[in-house]
Amino acid sequence: MPDQVRRGLNGVLVAESELSKIDGDAGRLSYRGYPIAELAERATFEETLYLLWNGSLPTRAELDPFSRELCSLRPIDAAVVQTLERLAQRDEDPMAALRTAVSMLSAGDPERDLVPTDSETIRRTGRRLTAKLPTVLAAYDRLRREEKPVEPSEELGHAANFLYMLTGTEPDEVAAETFDTALTLHADHGLNASTFTAMTVASTHADLYSAVTAGIGALSGPLHGGANQDVMEALLEVDESGDEPVEWTRSALDEGRRIPGWGHRVYSVKDPRAEILEARSDALAQSMGESRWCEYTRAIETYLTDEKGLVEQGIAPNVDFYSGSVYYQLGIPIDLYTPIFAMSRVGGWVAHVDEYLEDNRLIRPRSRYVGPDSRSVVPVEERSDSV
Ligand code: MLT
What we know:
Mean pLDDT: 95
Number of strands: 3
Bound molecules: D-malate
Order of helices and strands: EEEHHHHHHHHHHHHHHHH
Structural class: mainly alpha
Helix content: 55-70%
């Protein structure tokens, strides 16, 4: 059926990829053949980036220079910090501030005029962007609290360094590892809306800064990355209401509200990333002695599964349902959750752009025209309202 309209490109295959494999009915996800649970358990975010960009997990001799290079690329120009300061004075949303700053980062890139289509240039620019996004975000959060940005550390890994730049204190091992896992889990996920957006922009041979800026824009919506923030706001509402989580959920559904963090275009069962984050959230709760958020999420999940039968209908918890409570327990401000998603997903955007441009074809779908035919233009003075 060549002329059938597939709304939202649902199920349409537009590329071949060796990056993420998703089995939505079995709840399985792997990056380049490695199950996500094993990567979360045994590899760092840096190793995952290396895997996505180079095709195999790094040896120690490959990882060390790779990590050192990322580390050396962390600092951002004073001009970007000044812009962030102005945005903070205007109380800009952090995701919008990140979008603006990422676009501005190209001005400080000595290679910004290179034709962005060869793999080496894409990966080099990708490393710059990936290294700098956490610095931008942490600086923005501090500036809006009227605190001086903290210089990146040369000793800490990507995840721990972000928490350090945010708070000014080195995180403990549990916090650093949990955050590292969250970054790994969000690094790639097939042709989600923001990755497809980045690929579409790059397919015009626009530069990587444009592609990543557009990806951030696509990720910001509540139907994509914005949902993790909505989940935590809902959990706080439960807490403030003083109701049992099940009572709160029942009333929310009666009012016609959607429970955020449920349902996914690709998964008909629980998102495997949610399973891993649920366990991490429990571990954090135990180490911090505060089990409230885990109890709320679990009570809501049990109610929606057992009493409302949502999972049977193919609507199950997705990654956002558990990332919110993990970040909250790590003390991260709620409006940074979606920018943190971008900080991780930039790895996937770069990998997909690189892969797609190897055999680029301008992305240019069609729509079926259903408007009127054969009208003729009447001069403006002679037009009536209905013409
Ligand atoms: C993602 O990780 O990008 C989200 O789960 C959304 C998606 O895959 O469509």
